[in-house]
Each structure stands twice: as structure tokens, then as C-alpha cells.
Amino acid sequence: MGDGAFHPLLNSEEGKRIIREALKRSILSFDTAFSYRNADTLLSSVLKERQIDRSSIEIHSKAMPVPTIRDKALTSLRRLNTDYFDTLMLHWPSNETLKYMATLDDMRKEGLAKNIGISNASLSLLEKIRDKYDKITIEEPLSLIWNSDFEKKKELSDKTLTYSPLGMGILTDKYLFSPPDDLRKNLPSLKTESFQTLRERISKWRDELKAKTEELSMAFADKMNGDTIIVGISSKAQFDTRRIDLPEDIFCEMRLLSERITKETGEENIFAHHRN
What we know:
Largest sheet: 7 strands, parallel
Strand order of the largest sheet: 1-2-3-4-5-6-7
Low-confidence stretches: none
CATH architecture: Alpha-Beta Barrel
Distance between the termini: 27 Å
Number of helices: 9
Radius of gyration: 19 Å
Number of domains: 1
Strand content: 5-15%
CATH topology: TIM Barrel
Shape: globular
Mean pLDDT: 92
CATH superfamily: NADP-dependent oxidoreductase domain
Helix content: 40-55%
């Protein structure tokens, strides 16, 4: 909620209302980052207000490597009013990823993070990291418009955090058939031939299963069996997205199309970020 590039930027009171609603619904796992502006302090404020025991929740966070990932992580801990992360990750790969992973590992040994990992890594980079570290968490976008080597990456990781199951809002009834006039329209995935095929197939599946596009999208993410699905929420109504079971034949077709879309982008990740 502190980064408005791909979704509504909530003010402080709106953000707190969303966090309170999450706690009310027994959602106890939160994803944040140093760069998400006031997200850390909003989360900390509500946890203190509701007298939530720190050990009852999970806080997964990320930091960019430059100029110093350690200083950024320590700043986030102060904002969060906690002395450890459940998971601390390198937010984006860099030219010196292994050096920064060593810093995170030192912080794990110091008790500042229970687990360490990397967000948005290519398969080849993850293989290099896994050669040096036994326990690694990965955070990956995973949706019908992005499915890059997920099952192979899952085998290399100890825990998977998957985010943006609705493709940053594209994979909803509101936006799928008329992409909005914002930064999302520039995603490479939306320019592929297979994405156009996906739009046609979703029209059929919606009628066949009497389901909304977002329900189909969430069902696909569920069936991919990541450990934790991170869903961005900007309104209370979004908590009520119905969870449905996908027939195996539809799921298999979805997975094939998502793999084709990913391959047709010719990019290592959904944001066309190549540094590794």
C-alpha cells in the first residue's frame, strides 16, 4: 500500500482499515519492503493498536541492495517495531547478488531474520544461490500472465511466496477486456499472441463455470501450490473473492497458456528486469 505504481495508493487511514480487516479475517502473513514508503509504519501501528503478539504473525520484507542492504533492513525493523523478520529478501537481483546474499545470511545468523531469500530471480541465478545456501525462500509473481519456471524454482527453494495472482489487477472482470490507461498496459505479457488467446478462453470459462475472471485467476494460483499467496488488497470488498475449484482440464490449459505467454515475452521476469 506504499507503492502506487500498479494499484491505488491508499492514504494512512484507508491502509489501516485494510490491515484491521485482514487481522479480523485471520490473515496473519504480511508482505512489505523498505521501498513501500509508509507500509511498515502502518502495519506496526495497527499491530500495536490491536495488541497483536509478534510471534503470531509473519512479516516478509525486502530491500534493494544499493547503497547498503543492511542499513535498509535495519531501518525497516525500526519502522516495524520488531527485532526480526520472518523472511528478509533481496528485492531485485543485481550484478553482485551473491555478495548481498552473504550480507543477508550474516543477518540470519545474528537473529535479525529467521529466513532469507530473493525476490524476482531467474532460474539460473537461483541455481547459483542454492549452490551456496541450503535454505532459501523465493518470492515470485505467479499468475495467468506470468509463470516463469515456477515448478523448477519451487524444487530449489524451501518456501515459495507468490504474489500478484491477479496480474496486478489485469486479470479481473474490471480490466481484462479493456486494459487500463496506466503503467500496466506496458507489461510485455499483454502484447503476446497467447494473451489474446487467454482472453478468449477466459470468456468461455466464465460462462462454463459461472465464475468471475478474478475467481478463475485465484483458482489457478491456488492450484499451482505455492506455500503462500500474497494478494494486494485496496478495498474490503476484495477480501470476499470467492474461491473455486478448477476442473483439471481447464487448469492444464491455463498452465499451458501461461507458460506460452511467459515464453513469448522473451524476458526473464514480468517487469523485463535483466540484471543478475
